Amino acid sequence: MDFEQFKRRCAHDYAKAIVNLRQEAxxxxxxxxxLKDLHKRLSENTFEWVGHAxxxxxxxxxxxx
Length: 65
Known about the structure:
Blueprint: H1 3-22, H2 32-43
């Protein structure tokens, strides 16, 4: 996948996630947990690590950290 394809994929995934998010009620608490969930839902089809805090260990599907 070249960079232009990557940008199109990201834009498509973001747009789809935003449509879905707009159909949901706002959270009762706007906190770190909610922000992590937003981050994950916006990019989960593009990046394996989204929605995880950087201060916690993360292991990719291929076993790398």
